[in-house]
Design a protein that fits this description.
The structure is a single chain. Helix content is 66%, strand content 4%. Helix 6 links the parallel strand 3 and strand 4. Helix 34 packs antiparallel against helix 35 and helix 36 packs antiparallel against helix 37. It is globular and about 105 Å long.
C-alpha cells in the first residue's frame, strides 16, 4: 500500500471494483504540486492489472494545440474505431490528425464516449488524465462530456489537477472531486527517512517537516537543498514558509544547473517540444547540433527517464524548472530551432510551427501570416473549426497592426463560434474591434458579438451593441441593417418585451423590402411578431408563404430558422404543424450532431407536446434540452428548457421536481437577464397550485406573470400562458370582478384570428362566470368543447369537462355531472395529472358516482432518458445509431433498453417496442424524436 494513503487508495479501488461490475465512475483529484496525485493514481493503476488502462498527461507547452491530449490518450486503442458509429469515428480520426479533420466538437466528444464503451465491451477500463490543468481545452471538454454521460459501461476515469487551477475545475464541475492533502506526521517522517536525498540534522529535519506540510515530493527532494545550508538556524524559524512549488522548482533548477551545458540545451529542447515520439525528439536535437546522447547526463541525474515512445521528465516541475530557469535568449533560440524543423509543414503541424515562431520573438511577417491564413481557409471537409480558429489567430499575430489584422481575427472568431467556443470567440472579437479600420468590418464584428451574447445569456448587451450599429449599417448595406434589426427583435423576444420586438421587426421588414432582398429569417421573425401580438391572420398568410424555405432551412444563418418556424406554428395554435416541423428538424440535427441547435428545438418541441397531451415525451425533450444546453454552453437554452420542464411537471403533480426546476429556472433567468423564462416558471407553479386546489397560492404566482405580460406588451398565448389559469383561480375564490378582467384578455386574444385553444379556454371561463344562468353557462361550455375539439388538446378538454361537471353537480344535475366528470377523470388519469384527477374524483364522489381509474399508459413507467432511447429505437435505428443520435455509448443504450423491456409488460424485442410506440402515437402519450 502507498505510504500514508490507505484511505485514498480504498476510495479509488472502490471505483475500480464497481467498474468490474459494469458500473462507470469518475473522480477529479486536486492538490498542490508534489502532493502525490500522480503517485496515487499510478499505484491504483498498478493494482488494477486486470483492467485495460489508457492514459495521458497535460503538457504546459502543448495546451494551445487542439486535441493533442486526446490523441495521446487514444493512440494505443485506435484499432477499436471500427466498432463505433461511422460519423463519430470520422470525427475522431480528424481530431487526432489521422484523416480529414472534423468540424464537429460534439461528434468528437460523442466519439470519445462511444470508444470508451467499445473498449469496455472486452472488460472494464481505467482512463487516467494527469495534470489536467495543462490539457488543451478541446481534449478536456471532450473528455468531460464523455465522462458525464458514462453509465453502465464499466469505465473509470481519474483526473488529476493542481488545486489552484479553477478553470479546469470549472470544466469538470459535474465530476466528483476530492482534494489530496499532505501526509500525516508519522508517514511524513518515515518517508523522509527512507527516501530523502540527504542526511539532515535534527533541526533541519524539523524545519523541513514543518515547511513541507506533508508534501511527499518536498520530503524526498528538499533534504539535498537544506542539508548544511543553515536554514534550520533558530533565527530563520519565524520566516514565512516558501510555497512548495517554488521550493521544488528551486531544487530542480539547482540540479539542472549542475549539468553540462550540452545536457541543459537538450533538456530545454525537450521541455519546448512537449510530448513527441522518440524519432521526433532526435530530429529536433540534431537540428540544434545535439544528439540523443546529450540527455544521458540528465537521465543519470534522475531528471528525465526514457520511455517506450520518447523521453519524459520525471515530474512536471522538472520541465517547468528547465524552461523557466533558462534565459529568454536561450528559450527563444530553442523555439526558433524547432520552428525551423517544422518549416513546410501543413495543418495541424503548421500551428506548432507558428506557435514556436511566435515564441522565438519573430517580428510580424506577411508571408508567414498568409501561409497560416491560407491553411485556415482550407475546405471545411479538410480542416477543423477549432484548428482554423487557432491558425487565423496565429496569422493575426504575424500581421502588422490594422485592417488585415482585424479581418483575420474576425475569421478566427467565426471559426471559434462554429466550434462552439463562445467565450473564446467573444474575446477574439474584442481584439478584432481594436484593429478594425473599415466600417463594414466593425459592423460585422458587432453583429457576431451580438449573437454570441444572446447564446451566452447576455441579451441586454447584445441589444445595445446592435442598436449602436444599425444606423451605420443602413448607410453601408440596408440588408445587413435589416438582419441586425431582426437580431434585435430576437433578443427582445428572449427578454420577453413583445412591444420592443414588434418595433424592431417592423423596421427590419421595411429595410428588407427597400433592399429588395428576400431575407427569409427576417420575414419569419416578422411573422412571429404578427402571430404573437399583431394581425394574426396576416401572420398565418405569411407563414404559409414561408412553408417552402422552412422545409429546408439554412443552418448557417444566425437565427435558428426551424425553431422560429416552430414557434410561429405554436403561436398560431397549429400544433400538428409545429410538431411536424420541429420533429423533422430535431431528427436532422441529431444526425448532424448539431447539439446547440438541437437543444433549442427540443425546448420548443417540449412545449408543443405539452399542449398535445404527450407529457411523457414532453418531459424527455425538455430534460435532454437542458442537459445538452449545459454541455454546449448555450445558457439561453438552459432556462428555456427548465421553463418547459416546470409546466409539464406541474400538470403531472410532480411537486418536488416542479419546485426545484422552477427555482433553477428563476435563478438562471436572473443571471442571464431572461425574465421571460422566470415568468414561464411562475406560470408553471401557478398551474401546480391550481391542480392541488390551492387557489390563493395559484393567484400569487399567476398575478406576477400577468404583471410581467402587461409590462412587456404581451397578452396570453401557448408559450407563456396564464390567463385561463388565473381566471379559474379567481372564480374559485369568488373574485368574479377580477376574473372578468382576465376574461377580457382571453377574449381579445381569441379574437385575433382563428385560435380555437384560446377561444375554448375563454368560453370555459365565460361559462364559469354564469353560475346564476344555467342555460347560458351550458351554452358556453358546449362551445368550449367544440372549439377545443379542433386541436389535439386533451388536457384543455378535460378541464372544460371538469368545470362543467362541477357546475352541474352544484346545480343539482347529478346525472349529467357524472357523465362529464367520468370523462374528465379518464382524461386526467390517462395524462397522469394526478392532482387534477384527485379533484375530479372528489367531485364525482359528491355527485354519487363511482371512481373508475383507467390503467396508466405503460410508457409513463420510463424515465426521460429511457423514453428518448425508446423513441429513437422506434425510428428503426440500430443501437449504434441510437447511441450516435443521443450522444450516449452503445453500452448505455443497451442498459436503457434492458430497463425498458423490464418495465414494459409483454415487450421483450425491438419489434414489440416499435408496435407499442406506433399504438401509443395514436393516443396522447408519445411522439417521435
Amino acid at each position: 500500500m502507498l505510504l500514508g494513503r490507505s484511505a485514498e487508495c480504498a476510495r479509488l479501488l472502490a471505483l475500480i471494483d464497481k467498474a468490474r461490475g459494469g458500473e462507470s465512475g469518475a473522480l477529479l483529484i486536486r492538490g498542490e504540486a508534489g502532493i502525490g496525485k500522480t503517485s496515487l493514481v499510478g499505484h491504483v493503476a498498478e493494482l488494477s492489472h486486470d483492467l485495460l488502462r489508457i492514459g495521458t498527461r497535460g503538457v504546459e507547452v502543448e495546451s494551445d494545440l487542439p486535441y493533442v491530449g486526446l490523441a495521446d490518450l487514444l493512440r494505443p486503442v485506435l484499432h477499436f474505431l471500427d466498432r463505433i458509429p461511422e460519423r463519430q469515428a470520422a470525427a475522431l480520426t480528424g481530431a487526432l490528425a489521422l484523416g480529414p479533420v472534423s468540424q464537429d466538437r460534439f461528434a468528437v466528444a460523442a466519439g470519445t464516449l462511444s470508444l470508451f464503451g467499445a473498449l469496455a465491451e472486452d472488460g472494464p477500463v481505467l482512463v487516467t488524465v494527469d495534470d489536467a490543468q495543462w490539457l488543451d481545452p478541446y481534449s478536456l471538454d471532450a473528455l468531460a462530456f464523455a465522462t458525464r454521460r458514462l453509465g453502465r459501461e464499466g469505465v473509470v476515469v481519474l483526473f488529476t489537477a493542481r488545486d489552484e487551477e479553477e478553470e479546469t475545475a470549472s470544466r469538470l464541475a459535474s465530476i466528483e472531486t476530492f482534494t489530496l492533502t499532505g501526509l500525516d506526521p508519522a508517514s511524513a517522517h518515515r518517508l523522509m527517512a527512507e527516501k530523502g536525498t540527504a542526511e539532515l540534522t535534527e533541526r533541519e529535519a524539523a524545519r523541513l517537516l514543518a515547511e513541507a506540510r506533508g508534501n511527499p515530493l518536498a520530503l524526498i527532494e528538499l533534504p539535498a537543498l537544506l542539508a548544511g545550508s543553515g536554514t534550520g538556524d533558530e533565527e530563520d524559524d519565524t520566516g514565512a514558509p516558501l510555497p512548495i512549488g517554488e521550493m521544488l522548482a528551486h531544487t530542480f533548477g539547482s540540479a539542472v544547473a549542475r549539468l553540462p551545458s550540452e545536457a541543459q540545451d537538450a533538456m530545454l529542447l525537450l521541455a519546448v517540444l512537449g510530448t513527441r515520439p522518440l524519432a521526433g525528439t532526435e530530429s529536433a536535437l540534431r537540428a540544434h547540433g545535439l544528439s540523443y546522447e546529450s540527455l544521458e547526463a540528465a537521465e543519470a541525474a534522475g531528471l528525465v527517464v526514457e520511455e517506450r515512445d520518447g523521453y519524459a521528465f520525471r515530474h512536471p516541475l522538472v520541465r517547468s524548472a528547465v524552461y523557466h530557469s533558462a534565459t529568454p535568449v536561450r528559450r527563444r533560440r530553442a523555439h526558433h530551432a524547432i520552428a525551423r524543423s517544422l518549416q513546410g509543414a501543413t495543418a495541424p503541424a503548421l500551428e506548432q510551427y507558428a506557435w514556436h515562431l511566435a515564441a522565438s520573438g519573430a517580428e510580424p511577417d506577411e508571408h508567414v501570416a498568409s501561409l497560416l491564413e491560407n491553411a485556415a481557409a482550407g475546405a471545411p471537409e479538410t480542416l477543423a473549426y477549432p484548428l482554423a480558429s487557432r491558425l487565423y489567430e496565429r496569422a493575426a499575430r504575424f500581421t502588422p497592426q490594422g485592417q488585415r489584422k482585424a479581418e483575420r481575427l474576425l475569421c478566427a472568431a467565426r471559426a471559434s463560434q462554429a466550434a462552439g467556443s463562445l467565450n473564446e470567440a467573444a474575446a477574439i472579437l474584442d481584439r478584432a474591434l481594436e484593429h478594425a479600420e473599415q466600417l463594414a468590418t466593425q459592423l460585422d464584428i458587432r453583429q457576431l458579438r451580438c449573437y454570441l451574447d444572446v447564446q451566452r445569456g447576455r441579451p441586454t448587451r447584445s441589444r445595445e451593441l446592435l442598436r449602436s450599429a444599425v444606423d451605420e449599417a443602413e448607410k453601408v448595406d440596408p440588408a445587413l441593417a435589416a438582419v441586425m434589426l431582426g437580431g434585435i427583435a430576437l433578443t427582445e423576444l428572449a427578454v420577453g418585451d413583445l412591444t420592443a420586438a414588434h418595433r424592431a421587426s417592423a423596421a427590419a421588414m421595411e429595410l428588407a423590402d427597400s433592399a429588395r432582398r428576400p431575407l427569409v429569417p427576417v420575414r419569419l421573425l416578422h411573422t412571429l411578431m404578427l402571430l404573437l401580438g399583431g394581425d394574426a391572420e396576416t401572420g398565418r398568410a405569411l407563414l404559409r408563404e414561408l412553408a417552402g424555405p422552412l422545409a429546408s432551412p439554412d443552418p448557417t444563418f444566425p437565427y435558428p430558422v426551424a425553431g422560429v418556424g416552430g414557434l410561429c406554428h405554436l403561436s398560431a395554435e397549429e400544433l400538428d404543424e409545429a410538431h411536424g416541423l420541429l420533429d423533422r428538424a430535431a431528427y436532422t440535427a441529431r444526425g448532424a450532431s448539431a447539439v446547440g441547435l438541437l437543444s433549442h428545438l427540443l425546448g420548443t418541441l417540449s412545449v408543443v407536446e405539452f399542449w398535445r397531451g404527450r407529457w411523457t415525451p414532453s418531459l424527455a425533450h425538455a430534460d435532454e434540452a437542458v442537459r445538452l444546453a449545459e454541455a454546449s454552453g448555450q445558457l439561453i437554452e438552459v432556462s428555456r428548457g427548465l421553463g418547459a420542464l416546470v409546466r409539464t411537471e406541474a400538470a403531472l403533480n410532480r411537486e418536488e421536481d416542479c419546485r426545484r426546476h422552477a427555482a433553477q429556472a428563476m435563478e438562471w433567468a436572473a443571471s442571464t437577464e431572461l425574465q421571460l423564462d422566470a415568468a414561464r416558471a411562475l406560470g408553471g407553479l401557478g398551474l401546480l397550485e391550481l391542480g392541488l386546489g390551492r387557489f390563493e397560492e395559484a393567484v400569487h404566482h399567476l398575478e406576477e406573470v400577468r404583471a410581467f405580460s402587461q409590462r412587456h406588451g404581451r397578452g396570453d398565448g401557448l408559450y407563456l400562458t396564464w390567463a385561463a389559469d388565473l381566471a379559474d383561480a379567481y372564480v374559485h375564490l369568488h373574485r368574479t370582478a377580477e376574473a372578468r378582467e382576465v376574461l377580457d384578455v382571453l377574449e381579445y386574444e381569441a379574437g385575433r384570428g382563428h385560435r380555437p385553444v384560446t377561444a375554448g379556454a375563454a368560453a370555459r371561463c365565460r361559462g364559469l362566470l354564469e353560475p346564476g344562468d344555467p342555460e347560458a353557462a351550458s351554452r358556453h361550455m358546449k362551445r368550449s368543447l367544440a372549439l377545443l375539439s379542433e386541436r389535439p388538446v386533451p388536457f384543455e378538454r378535460g378541464r372544460t369537462e371538469f368545470a362543467w361537471g362541477e357546475q352541474l353537480r352544484r346545480q343539482g344535475r347529478r346525472s349529467e355531472a357524472r357523465r362529464l366528470l367520468v370523462r374528465a377523470l379518464a382524461t386526467f388519469e390517462r395524462l397522469g395529472a394526478t392532482g387534477w384527477a384527485a379533484r375530479v374524483a372528489a367531485e364525482l364522489h359528491a355527485a354519487g358516482g363511482t371512481e373508475v381509474r383507467p390503467e396508466r399508459a405503460p410508457l409513463e413507467r420510463l424515465t426521460p432518458q429511457e423514453l428518448q432511447v425508446a423513441l429513437v429505437v422506434g425510428r428503426g435505428l440500430t443501437n449504434h445509431e441510437v447511441a450516435e443520435r443521443l450522444f450516449l455509448s452503445v453500452k448505455t443504450v443497451e442498459f436503457h433498453l434492458s430497463n425498458i423491456y423490464r418495465k414494459l409488460d409483454g415487450v421483450h424485442r425491438r419489434a414489440q417496442l416499435v408496435r407499442l410506440l406506433a399504438r401509443a402515437a395514436e393516443a396522447p402519450e408519445v411522439s417521435g424524436v
